[in-house]
Backbone:
């Protein structure tokens, strides 16, 4: 059963800017959906429409069978965690956590205490209950905000970039806390972020937005392996996918993709998809991990699947390294990631890398739609 | 260009300057800092909020005075030299461009103020635009308030470079940008720094950014330098427990353990047989064990309940989250690892870190692995 359903949702502001443009999605019971996209893509506006802080211009929002477009925020029974935590500075931690219960009424004093204590314990802020927010660190304030959502029995839980004000090392723990909240509640949750790695770590499904439009919705692996357009392919994954201007060539019944620097043979299974684009301009996308040192490649490296590059920079990572290169002829920058550490002695040298052609992406240069995936 | 030396610098704020709500009022903002930055080297300084990294940068720039100690540029004592005379270029988190000018005006303003010739100004601006790379001349023709954050930061950096600084100082220059834009901008910045070969100090709270930017990385905490080294130094031979937990993602888990003869015993009673190498070096008794996500042997050893499995297709990896003896532990597994309720884990002794039970000093660190 779809618990939260958004149908053709549009939000047009008074200045005519269309912040959300005909967006539809659903969030199932217990599902964690992440809305991700660059600044100004409409993700936060979508969240504010769900909670009722903005009015709907067109389309509908359903909670179960009920259309909630005209229902005021406090009657929608939604719990929200904000980027700046929105804790009340004049109330102590206990009062902050209890606020949502008190303001709604119907909870006994005893029940409020039990709920607050349980939530405080879960987020390790029990010793802080008597403190005022200004005596807390950013991470502690954030846990107060989570505890406040935890004590409620809301129909929908919303998170607006709750980690972006935290130091990098605190984010891992905070992510765990958010998952704890979600697993305890087992209700639909919508989480907004501009950070694709956060989206990957948290989302059961991820919706990628741009300029008010929903570009693609799916599991992390669907978005990463089968992006339907150039934007999604580029947005998901770090380091980003390498993009090369290219053309499709046909020769003796085989198809090739040719860039300024190299020509590569397309696998049989792509034939039908590229047949209409022979001699047409396309964009070739290669994920950094699909470039391999020839000796370590899980496929045979030949002149039909090789790109050469000058090695400019090696960045160590915990799983190996990222190599920053540029092609010789076109001086096009690209990145390769390896599970091994390249020795620094290769810096400045030109090295050949094998392309895993089964994993490449091709986009129409004009429409930016994928030739290989999606409709 | 210059070698920069910071000698025994202490910075103590007076009570009036101090935020009244801070608990540790007696602690100096910088506590006997010594650091040498070689000519042309890029140093990144990283640490949690309030560790003194920005203060150190501002002292190198001359924007803050020292309480005691010296700052030297090329062996010349600049401790009492005014910031504008030190020849530093600074780039801040907010770009501080002149909004009424185009990109080019921002670059040339310095020459106008300092009454250089028109030719000199034009030539230098052209030279910088050329080295700054693709598309920079386009930015030069636009009003700065029409530029994106990343573009503004490029102009701000160009503006510094035009002045031919001895030292380049950057304080969280890209933390205002979107995650995606940060990725491309940091590559851009690194490439420019390489081209200009300017001695650079780069301050950030993001360890991955610090690793990427710096030839060496300085880790700070509570006004002190905890360790200086390359990424490998910090990762495989951390100077103490703080550096070990600060560097690496997901962060290292730390468990209280006891060595008992040939075995290591966890608080929950589970026992693991030590390797011969470790048995030879570790003392008997209580200590702390540090484990990174990749430090576990999965599917052998003791069974632990799985809290959840985080699958990250973009990194071709999954992380199993579990609790070991009340401590949150993360174990790295392949992306297609089955969805299980229980996982058996054992420490991979070659990748374990040991620290004293009473202070943060290391008892054993694995060292940089031999790969070739």
Residues:
């Amino acid at each position: 059963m779809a618990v939260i359903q958004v149908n053709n949702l549009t939000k047009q502001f008074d200045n005519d800017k269309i912040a959300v443009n005909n967006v539809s999605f659903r969030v199932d019971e217990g599902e964690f959906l992440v809305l991700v996209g660059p600044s100004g893509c409409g993700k936060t506006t979508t969240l504010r429409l769900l909670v009722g802080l903005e009015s709907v211009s067109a389309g509908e929002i359903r909670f179960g069978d009920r259309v909630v477009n005209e229902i005021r925020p406090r009657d929608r029974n939604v719990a929200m965690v904000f980027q700046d935590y929105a804790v009340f500075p004049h109330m102590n931690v206990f009062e902050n956590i209890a606020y949502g219960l008190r303001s709604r009424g119907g909870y006994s004093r005893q029940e409020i205490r039990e709920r607050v204590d349980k939530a405080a314990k879960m987020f390790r802020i029990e010793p802080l209950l008597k403190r005022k927010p200004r005596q807390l660190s950013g991470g502690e304030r954030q846990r107060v905000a989570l505890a406040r959502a935890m004590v409620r029995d809301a129909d929908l839980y919303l998170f607006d970039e709750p980690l972006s004000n935290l130091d990098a090392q605190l984010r891992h723990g905070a992510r765990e806390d958010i998952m704890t909240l979600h697993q305890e509640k087992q209700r639909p949750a919508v989480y907004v972020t501009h950070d694709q790695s956060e989206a990957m770590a948290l989302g059961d499904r991820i919706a990628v937005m741009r300029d008010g439009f929903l570009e693609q919705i799916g599991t992390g692996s669907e978005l990463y392996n089968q992006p339907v357009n150039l934007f999604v392919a580029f947005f998901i994954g770090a380091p980003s996918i390498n993009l090369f201007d290219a053309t499709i060539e046909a020769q003796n019944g085989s198809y090739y993709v040719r860039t300024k620097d190299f020509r590569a043979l397309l696998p049989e299974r792509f034939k039908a998809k590229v047949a209409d684009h022979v001699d047409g301009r396309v964009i070739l996308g290669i994920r950094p991990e699909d470039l391999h040192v020839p000796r370590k490649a899980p496929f045979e490296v030949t002149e039909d699947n090789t790109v050469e590059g000058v090695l400019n920079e090696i960045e160590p990572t915990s799983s190996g390294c990222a190599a920053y290169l540029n092609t010789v002829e076109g001086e096009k920058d690209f990145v390769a990631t390896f599970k091994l550490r390249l020795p620094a002695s290769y810096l400045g040298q030109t090295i050949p890398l094998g392309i895993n052609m089964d994993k490449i992406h091709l986009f129409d240069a004009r429409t930016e739609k994928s030739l290989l995936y999606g409709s | 260009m210059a070698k920069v030396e910071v000698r025994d610098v202490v910075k103590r704020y007076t009570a009036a300057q101090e935020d009244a709500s801070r608990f540790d009022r007696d602690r100096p903002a910088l506590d006997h800092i010594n650091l040498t930055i070689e000519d042309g080297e890029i140093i990144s300084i990283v640490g949690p909020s309030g560790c003194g990294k920005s203060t150190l940068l501002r002292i190198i720039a001359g924007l803050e005075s020292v309480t005691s100690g010296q700052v030297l540029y090329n062996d010349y004592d600049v401790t009492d030299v005014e910031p504008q005379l030190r020849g530093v270029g600074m780039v801040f988190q907010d770009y501080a461009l002149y909004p009424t000018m185009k990109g080019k005006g921002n670059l040339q303003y310095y020459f106008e103020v300092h009454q250089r010739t028109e030719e000199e100004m034009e030539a230098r601006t052209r030279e910088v635009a050329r080295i700054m790379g693709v598309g920079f001349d386009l930015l030069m023709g636009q009003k700065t308030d029409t530029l994106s954050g990343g573009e503004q930061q490029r102009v701000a950096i160009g503006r510094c470079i035009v002045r031919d600084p001895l030292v380049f100082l950057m304080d969280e220059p890209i933390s205002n940008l979107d995650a995606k834009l940060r990725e491309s901008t940091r590559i851009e910045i690194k490439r420019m720094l390489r081209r200009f070969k300017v001695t650079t100090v780069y301050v950030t709270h993001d360890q991955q950014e610090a690793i990427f930017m710096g030839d060496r990385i300085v880790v700070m905490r509570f006004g002190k330098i905890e360790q200086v080294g390359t990424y490998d130094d910090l990762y495989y031979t951390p100077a103490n427990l703080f550096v070990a937990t600060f560097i690496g993602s997901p962060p290292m888990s730390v468990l209280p353990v006891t060595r008992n003869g040939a075995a290591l015993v966890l608080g929950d009673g589970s026992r693991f047989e030590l390797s011969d190498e470790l048995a030879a070096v570790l003392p008997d008794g209580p200590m702390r064990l540090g484990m990174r996500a990749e430090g576990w042997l999965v599917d052998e050893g003791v069974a632990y309940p799985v809290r959840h499995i985080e699958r990250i297709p973009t990194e071709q990896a999954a992380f199993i989250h579990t609790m070991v003896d009340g401590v949150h532990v993360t174990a790295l597994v392949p992306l297609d690892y089955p969805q299980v309720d229980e996982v058996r884990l054992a420490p991979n002794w070659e990748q374990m870190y040991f620290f004293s039970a009473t202070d943060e000093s290391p008892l054993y660190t694995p060292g940089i692995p031999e790969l070739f």
About this structure: Chain B touches chain A at residues 21, 48-49, 178-181, 183-184, 187, 190-191, 194, 205-208, 211-212, 231-232, 235, 245-246, 248-251, 292, 294, 307-308, 310-317, 321, 328, 330, 371-372 (CB under 8 Å). The first strand of chain B starts at residue 4 and ends at 11. Residues 4-244 of chain B form a domain with the Rossmann fold fold (CATH 3.40.50.300).
